[in-house]
Design a protein that fits this description.
Elements (H helix, E strand, L loop, with lengths): L3 E3 L3 E4 L6 H10 L1 H4 L13 H16 L4 E7 L2 E15 L5 E8 L8 H17 L3 E7 L3 H9 L3 E12 L2 E11 L2
Helix pairs in contact: 1-3
């Protein structure tokens, strides 16, 4: 995987610890929108030190291809994070699969940025990592995310009961998958 990708309107890149203040601003200013769909946060999560340590750990994991996180910027505003993309549970032979996650800040939703970024990201996963299958898990009430995945030809494979702990409660999620062509 490359450290940076570009699309028509976006820059998608891996960040290191020097971006901790920008990442903190992104997660803190969007916490009300993101937290209902995420696991409970550590009390230190909303600090620069925590974000710096996380960025360094993610950077090291990227180098080892164990975990991948990209941050999304608009080309016309390359200093403001508008979203993230991640790949986890990266399994090579015999599975050749991974699980993706993504989020876009509310002011940038419904402008096609998520579609543009996720399409680029999935293509990079297939081409660079040689994956055959990309999975995404979506809570039953996240209709926008389901619509996004559907637009990218992900297939809804059904419900996984009580599979992910969100806000201290195990929640049902739909599992979507995209298979390499």
């Amino acid at each position: 995987m490359q450290f940076e990708y570009t699309t028509n309107r976006l820059i998608i890149k891996v960040l290191d610890y020097t971006y901790a203040d920008k990442v903190l601003d992104f997660v803190f200013s969007n916490r009300d929108s993101f937290e209902p769909f995420e696991s409970k946060k550590n009390s230190a999560f909303y600090t620069v030190d925590y974000q710096a340590a996380t960025l360094q750990a993610e950077y090291n994991a990227f180098l080892q291809c164990r975990y991948i996180r990209y941050y999304i910027f608009k080309k016309d505003d390359p200093h403001t994070i508008i979203g993230t993309l991640s790949a986890s549970h990266i399994y090579h032979s015999p599975y050749f699969s991974c699980t993706i996650g993504y989020k876009i800040a509310p002011p940038f939703q419904r402008h096609g940025y998520a579609t543009e970024a996720l399409k680029c990201f999935c293509n990079a996963i297939f081409e660079s990592l040689g994956m055959n299958r990309i999975e995404a898990y979506v809570m039953h009430n996240n209709l926008a995310s389901m619509k996004l995945l559907d637009s990218l030809n992900f297939v809804n494979e059904g419900i996984c009961h009580k599979c992910i702990k969100i806000c201290d409660r195990f929640e049902d999620h739909y599992r979507f998958a995209l298979i390499a062509e």
